[in-house]
Amino acid sequence: MLTFRVLGALEAWDGDRPADLRGPRHRAVLARLVLARGHVVPVDRLIEDLWHGESPHRALGSVQTFVSHLRRALEPDRAPRTPSTVLVTAPPGYAFRVGTDEVDAWRFEALVHRAGGLLAAGAAAEALRELTAALDLWRGPAYAQFADEPWARPEAARLEELRLVAVERRAEAGLAIGQASGIVPGLEAHAAAHPLREESWRLLALAMYRCARQGDALAVLRRVRTALREELGVEPGARLQRLEADILAHAVELDAPVAVPSAAGVTAGATAEAAVGVAVPPLREAPGAARIHPSTSSDPVGGQVSADGSDRAYDRVAVDGSDPAFGRVHGQVSEHVSGTATGGGFVARTTTLIGRAEETATLLAAAKRADGRLAVALVSGDPGEGKTALTEHVRELLAAEGWRAAWGRCPESGGAPAGWPWTQMLRTLAAVSPPDEETARVLAPLLADSFVPVGDQAAAKLRLHQAVVGYLARAGAETPWLLVLDDVHRADEETLALLCHLATDRDAAGRVLLVVTYRHNEVGDLLADALARLARCGPERIELTGLAPEAVADLVRGAVSAPIDADTVRAIVDRTAGNPFYVLETARVLAAEGAHAAVSEVPVGVRDVIRRHVAGLPKAAQEVLKQACVLGRDIDVDVLLAQGGTDEDTVLDAVESALLTGLLVEPEAGQLRFTHALVRDTLYEDLSQLRRARMHARTAEAIEAVRPRDVAALAHHYLASASRATAAKATHFARLAALDAEMHFAYREAAELWRGALVAFDRSGVADEAARKEMEAGVERSLAQSGDHGYEAGA
How far is 547 from 356, CA to CA, in rounded Å? Predict the structure, then answer.
């Protein structure tokens, strides 16, 4: 069992073997994380605390190295690439997650708390055992090596105060079971060391009186009176005065100890306030063995300050794979990261909004109208305005009313099968409400990994669309559903065709709200046609623009812990036009470099701010992000590692840097996602065409090794590699992907793939007229099936 000791010098033990914690800064990182009691400590705060504002250029890399060494020391048997369960990466920093019994300070607090309940219930013997066990955990001053560190002093002082209370409670318990003579020596030393603690003197005088030392008891009371008068100019408190009067009067109640009942029936939540001279509020439960997050627990003992010495605890980090989640300020909803400030650094992520109250109300009203009839809402806006975040916020609100949600995202970079967003959504629905056998057979093009089409394709497409309508009606009759079709400005033909069919079909029933998001400045011909068809069903339309100045001010002030003056807020409003993503990227600069840099040195334009953000990473991390952006916004870690050119540890360190600085999120194990499409797009567009092509080739080879049946992704990357060396494979996989697109009724996409296959075939220099004619026939067939003979594939 892994245990940690901070009541004295910092130590970690794996059973009976001490862990090698390396140097003083390694130990400081571990102590800092233990002190935060499971809350996230942002990496900026760690850097500030380790170097006291004079951090080296490679401070981020140094912190990652310290954490990496500590993880190896604490979990030596952890398999490669398996996430640590002790020192957890939790953007924008790290968290220490173990059970209460695994840290001596946490166990000490729990024992003192439990003893207080026992004392209040009169179970003094049991309380004495608990308090003795608690005090035996102490080996010296808490966090001894870090006693002079500003971040450790408040917590060390709090624990020391609780230790003094435990000493007095143990004396209280000893008196209650008639052990007066045994507690006098220890209490004399305790009272002498802490001459202004009235409770210590009260207990000592009472113990002496019960040992037939009436004169000594009165002398103790005179001594404390003198000390209080000379040091503080005050008289003893009421309890001391009452004890003195009772001793002089030989009060009977001073003679006999309190009866000692058993602990049976004592509740864990009993308080000790009545039985103990110094009242101590109930202890906050530390993270348990079940890894329950500390944010669900109560306040700490004695009003424990947070890990940075303030009166706030760090908020938990929500990483859900959506656009950056936003934080609550003044009870409103906004567009981006917020939450508890981190002492000069950036803040933890939460999942609420600021400044979109009207839009939220509109979507909630649309959900209410979806009562027996599918409702459609269109949410549009520029990149970074928070389209995805708004729908995610509404999802959370509807979830509280019993709604379920399914999300379908149109990929930014291509390489996904036709109708992929619907596949994502329908698979989510099917896990909750499985379709019957016949429906599943018709839905096979979207639900099954592979299928064999039979019969007339046009009729099969109509049956598929009608089956989706019927299935959603049945699922919506059982449970209300929010369906989100995200980023349809990138949607393929079949995705939009099914959307239009569903929205305009009179049989579309059930409690279903379909929210469609897109960038209104990237509407192509296909989407324009789809929007014209959707107009017939009278959808709710929401067009997001920049936040109002008041909301920007709330957002910035919620994101940066230092005070922000009105002039700085106005400058940020002017530079960002209220674009939430841009505001938060500027706030990152504000938190890290100050107001002057944020409003004068940072170039105007969100992409330039992103470039500045990326430039702050170690060079190795920048290179790995460039490899990752070729994969698209969603990143398969196995593929990223298989791209080659960089060893696994370097890649994982780079990923951690990007997670810590908010460029990536980790929606699930083995999967990464750029926090916003703008981040990925900026990285990708900054690559030269030659470098893009080479990286696409490496990516295709990696996918072929990891997911050899993913023909759509292989076709996309091999075609983008655009070289003679990869032309044969580009031709092969483009042909397979085109056939697959035809089976999924995505005929225009199939035509583009056939055209791509022809281009690659010509580049390969192969002389095979039969193969060329097959591909030419594929183009003509796909265009004919699409019903648009004038359409030019690839246009």
Answer: 8
